[in-house]
Amino acid sequence: MSGPGLFDKYDASPAFCEVSGRADDPEIQRLFYKRLGKKTRAALARRKKRAEEELFNLGITFTVYFGEDTVDRVLPFDVIPRPITGSDWDAMEAGVKQRIAALNAFLHDIYHDQKILKDGVVPADLVTGNKYFLKEMEGLDLPHRNYVHVCGTDMIRDTDGSFLVLEDNCRAPSGVSYVIENRHLMQRSFPDLMENARIRPVSDYGVKLREKLSDCAPQGVDDPKVVLLTPGMFNSAYFEHVFLAREMGVPLVEGRDLYVDETDQVFMKTVSGPEPVHVIYRRIDDAFLDPEAFRKDSMLGTPGLMRALRSGKVAIANAPGTGVADDKAVYAYMPEIVRYYLDEEPILRNVDTYVCRREEDRKYVLDHLDELVVKPVGESGGYGIVVGPKSTRAEREEVGKAIRRDPSNYIAQPMITLSACPTLTGEGVAPRHVDLRPFAVTGESTWVLPGGLTRVAMKKGSIIVNSSQGGGSKDTWVLS
Amino acid sequence: MQAKAEGRRIPGSSHRLLSRYAEHAFWLGRYVERAENLVRLLAVTEGFAAGDDDDAAWRGVLDTFHDRDAFAEARPKLSGLNVARWYFVDRSNPNSVISALHAARENARALRHITPIEAWKQINMLYGAVDALSARQVTLPKLSQLCETVRLGCLTHQGMVDGAWYRDEAWLFHRLGSELERADQTTRLLDVKYYQLKSAGASEDDGFAPPDIVWWNSLLRSASSYHAFRRRHALTAGPTEAANFLLFDADCPRSVKLSALAAADRLRELEHDYDAAPGDPLSKACEHLLALLEKPGGVKPGKGLHAFLDEVQLGVIGFASALAGRYFGPD
């Protein structure tokens, strides 16, 4: 199907390949086999090196902590993009919007009438006993009943090419800055590859985000002042906070830059005096948001923010208490949640999930540890995951004990062969497993950024794509 | 002119500058300017010292920054090489080039969302280049080249700030930091000679100033002002004229006078364009500094000059602390 080139010896099977699996798409043919396929490995390696140097010089880094030392690292950047056809994308986008609508309905319900719990669709203690469930949010009405303003849905592709949702990130999903920076980097590194390619643009994310956040401002505020609240420069995602504030054109503030007065109005301290704040896109966790309401010892937040939220003087995105919905155990109920609130069939499938708190599920999991991927409910970033087929007997015994000790903390899923994408490796262009995190922003309505973060496991055969575990990223091309 | 009405620069949805960012911008300006002046001073000292063991020349630098004790603690032996390394790459010295660039970079990092991307990138790379130097790589024969790299890096930063930074309040605070630091550092540059003579055991009589015109020319060169000085002054002009040029010439970009005037201009812009009036204590501190620089007869090199420079330095300190009190810590 192509001339001599980079892709000649490429074979991703048994995984679904993002490029060859859609090779009947003429645009993918043209861009990958005709253009990219004719470049040499050395040329790609040179461009990769230059691109990563550029990332480092620009300080587009995340910080790794080794005891007392900190090291700035760039996220490994792969120069071979991951294409998604227009029709694949459109179906997935509809699914993401549907899921967010259901998540928001669910959150509104559990903080109000709790109908879904009373109807027994979701076990009540899973919600009210959840560490992210906030009493402070009960009975509070939010503009547009919107809790999940920014959502990053982690998706994978099964061997037949269908998208499956792996996780809903409803608190502070990160990585969108890489989506846009990766695109800029590709445009600088491969102008020849992208010329006349019909790739949907990603550069208006900041504008859309600000627009959706402004939608949620308190009533009667015509010209809402939006700010982005960061824990500060030592946070590992600080670059992303900088990026978002810059793209939105809003101040990047820390808790100490704000105060709440006795009328529950939030202000920021400027050189011209106090200035009111109406919408806070916060990138700090609930527990640190407001020492008056939550952790008293926190220096990161601002005393009184919850008061201001309850008085309707400020909007906080994402709303406090949304963590209940991205819990890995609640995830298992998402298909029912979609049906319950929207009276529709879910467009996107979940990965089959065994919830260890259910006795029959637990029994199955304990009997099939060598086949399943076991995940602790409360961890993120790929920590604590045991991949059954690749585990040792000792690891399985250990996780088995942990499940018996604290069943509620574990779920398990069958091992899915993640889709692969051609990736530049030491041995040439080879398949590496990828996932996808599209980003959606919601105000009066939901908008999905056409692209999303493609993370790639740089190690051969590995399915762990998290940056904290050595994963890299690629540009994601949604073709039209 | 009516154009500068209250809040003129503030359209509906934009924000005023957070106090914390004003502070970061101010210190970014200060630290870059400090690094630049430091390498100018090291380069002129290296050029004129009679080698590694010219104690008087190198001790003059330590005295200028009141660093003699700190240096003695850090380094066992006074030598040109030790002083150069201590001021270039020693992180334990808060007055070193690497410390100044590190502080500049941290302030720039805090400001990243409002500064031009290329300005952040450039300061990040400049810091990275100096950070990569080991102490061994700093030698006296290489010193002037290293100083030149840093000097050009700092000038590039200032160029980007002028050429690419949106002229907002953050820009004004950056300029305020640069101007005040420059005023301070130019007085220190002028003071080096005094300390060198003093540490060489010269008498402290008022008016003591050997007509070391070669040294003064070199000083003017290190302040990028030699040719300007030659255009303005007769060939016979000497140390007195040189010192007064760097102090009072309102057209010389590195003069103390021009720095103070520029700082006063920035304060006016804050008031007129951003509704951020300096208030009484700051206005007074600014007027005081400007008044000091109204010296009709100028000053003569020697002890009189040293006393005057001390006074100007105090004036700069007063200005900076009034500025911090007004803008950086409102509650």
Keywords for this structure?
heterodimer, A: about 475 residues, alpha+beta, five-stranded mixed beta sheet, 15 helices, about 25% strand, B: about 325 residues, mainly alpha, 14 helices, about 70% helix, disordered N terminus
Structure description:
The complex is a heterodimer of chains A (480) and B (331). Chain A has 15 helices and 23 strands. Chain A is of the alpha+beta class and 480 residues long. In chain A, helix 2 (41-57) packs across helix 6, helix 3 crosses helix 13 and helix 8 (205-215) crosses helix 9. The mean pLDDT of chain A is 92. Chain A is 30% helix and 23% strand. Chain A is globular, with a radius of gyration of 23 Å. The relative contact order of chain A is 0.18. In chain A, strand 18 (420-425) and strand 19 (428-437) form a beta hairpin. Chain B starts with 18 loop residues before the first helix and ends with a helix. Chain A binds chain B through residues 57-59, 223, 225, 227, 233, 238-239, 241-243, 245-246, 249-254, 256-257, 268-273, 275, and chain B through 12-22, 106, 109-110, 112-114, 117, 120-121, 124-125, 128, 169, 173, 270, 274-276, 327, 330-331.
